[in-house]
Amino acid sequence: MTAPTMLLLLADGRFPAGAHAHSSGLEAAVAAGRVTDLATLGDYLRGRLATAGLVAAAFAAAACRAAEPSHPRPSPSGEADQSRLRPPPNGDGDRARLTPSPGGDAGQVRRAALARLDAELDARTASLAQRSVSRRQGKALLRAGREIWPAASFDELPAAPGGPHQPLVLGLVGAAAGLDPAQVATVAAHATVTGSASAAVRLLGLDPYQVQALLVRLAAACDATAAQAARAAEEPPERLPAANAPLADIHAEAHATWEVRLFAS
Fold first, then answer.
1. Do 245 and 52 form a contact (C-beta atoms < 8 A)?
2. Sorted alphabetically, which InterPro entries does this protein's record hold (predicted)?
């Protein structure tokens, strides 16, 4: 299959990774009376794009970039050179990049890169409930990735309790499917809004045609977010976007305590 077709398959809500079971915080926002109709849903989705969407897309693109075949390149001596995976001695970490200079074992360097991305994404996810959801979704996506692309190596993901973060797995799955970092960022940004939009039809009884029209109106913002994320992915993990939404964190923590709920998050 061509890369555009693979992009459509990964962006399809029917991809077997369990995304349909999550409202991405919308259920709690509806219960709190903050999302009540199509207009407030639009505000909610724009907010998600600017915060969670940008962060997820940037980390997914960075993980995809780390998994590219050209990253890293072995040196003639075969010795590991991870000098560009950490700040140089003068402390100028701004020039550090995930792509190492020539040299180093490919798997070892990628493991180090993915471990850094995992730690940085953890630090950007203040809510314990949201960290747990991200790792559960990552575990589900990883299972699908292994089954669909068995030749792809997912063993370089960090063995974190609960599983790897979903954006990192998405990056590796995208790379295995032949997508580039910009395409992976598009999938991640797209999923940020479509999951909640689909949940809104069930939670609020909105007209699905009007919800789809809303997504069409958000297409340009989604594309812009993906492009911004893809550019950011060229930076070292410490410089990736850190946009956050404290109210979303509060909603996530509250939602996790509910005994009865329609969605897992």
1. yes
2. UreF, UreF_sf
